[in-house]
Amino acid sequence: MRLLERAQSKTGMYHLSEEDRARLTPLRGGLPIAKITIEHEADEIAAALHAEMPWMAPATEAVWHGLCASAQQPLTIFRRH
Q1: Range of the domain at 68
Q2: What is the pLDDT averaged over residues 6-23?
Q3: CA–CA dist 47, 39 (Å, integer)
Q4: Half-sphere exposure (Cβ direction) of 24: Cα atoms closer than 13 Å
Q5: pTM assigned to the model
Q6: Do 76 and 38 belong together in one domain?
Q7: For residues 41 and 67, is the Cβ–Cβ distance under 8 A?
């Protein structure tokens, strides 16, 4: 049991209820990247995220700041050589 608890605690989601972890499952594979062109878009996306996952307020706020920064800067493209 202790081994299982240690393994689960390393996921960073162990503190969430089983129901909350299940709600995050669709995001496991990642999301497509899109350029946010205006800050209003960032506000709308962040508000929708927060409405859907209010327990993740610190994370949704970080996403909101990132989206606002994306609207102010050109998209950087990384290439693997």
Answers
A1: 32-81
A2: 77
A3: 12
A4: 16
A5: 0.51
A6: yes
A7: yes
The SS3 of residue 51 is helix
Ramachandran bin of 80, using left for φ above 0, alpha for ψ from -120 to 50, beta for the remaining angles: beta
**Residues 40 and 74 reside in one and the same domain:** yes
Look at the block and give the residue holding tokens 């996403």: 63
41 pLDDT above the threshold of 70: yes
Q: What is the token pair recorded at 21?
A: 């972890």
- What total number of domains does the chain contain? 2
The one-letter code for the residue type at 9 is S
Per-residue tokens: 54: 């209010």
Q: Residue 60: which residues within 8 A CB-CB, separation 6 or more?
A: 46, 49, 50, 53
52/26: higher pLDDT: 52
Give 58's DSSP letter: H
